[in-house]
Amino acid sequence: MPISDHQLIEAWKEVLTLSRLEAGQTVTVLTSAATHPQTLACALIATQSMGAIVNRLDLPPVNGDKAFSRDSLAYLGTTPLTGNRAAIAALKASDLVLDLMTLLFSPEQHDILKSGTKILLAVEPPEVLARLVPTLEDRTRVLAATKKIGAAREMRVSSPAGTALVCPLGEFGPTAEYGFVDEPGRWDHWPSGFALTFPDDRTAHGTIVIDRGDILLPQKRYVNEPIVLTVEGGYATKIEGGVDAALLRDYMETFRDPEGYAISHIGWGLQPRARWSTLGLYDREATIGMDARAFEGNFLFSLGPNNEGGGSRTTTCHIDIPLRGCTVKLDDETVVRDGRVVA
Ligand SMILES: [Fe+2]
Fold it and tell me: Which Pfam families does the protein's record reference (predicted)?
């Protein structure tokens, strides 16, 4: 259901205030062919009304001829910033970049953040943004979880469906996604609400069962019959099951890249306002599925790169998979029990 410009401008102002935007700071709104016009228009008004110096940088899309999905997170190749020194200079010279394009998993993003520029990604449809405006409580909850991850040496995940996964930790630090950027050089994604890290390279092992009702992204589908992943030495070495498993195997084969099968980020959802059921209400073209990634108590794991966490693995393949009903343990402490976050 649509929202009014007034509602979205107020939502932007809330997020920009949490992000400590001050009058006189420079904001660059990064856009491309898929940018939602209402999100853009309201971002321009909100930033100007708060006294910022506002630019818009519109870049032509890339990768459309290579990707099999229209989802902006499905194919992680070069970005419109690759080799684009003028655009990178403009973003580095900004205090805040509002990424309405999707720059995630690119070396250019790291380069810009290192200069102290903050980047806030916002590509979900306007009504999802307005429903999931972040709060300070979100930040507190997510930071408490990342602190636990940062101190842990191992994550173990189990489920009644048969998941039994072991992920040694410590090589890569934790990442907190709470939906706003309140520190220089911080990246975040509105909406979100989860804590994650990456397993030590080539060490994750065990079995992951993607059960009925669990979600595949970017497929944006609820699985109808279990898919069993065998995980050895940090990679999914077998993908078994019925039609859903065959569809996943076929999609992943299109990338022709063994690195796409690596276990990527692992963590759990901490956003009580995000819902497991939302994805079923949306056209696949209309959302990237942040409700599915963030709903409270899901175990979210991913296949693909680890460069976003500080590793060296890059691959164009990236699949996010939230599982319900899991128990997640950090060393001896249970942080999620049967799909519910332990307070
Ligand atoms: Fe992911």
Answer: NicX
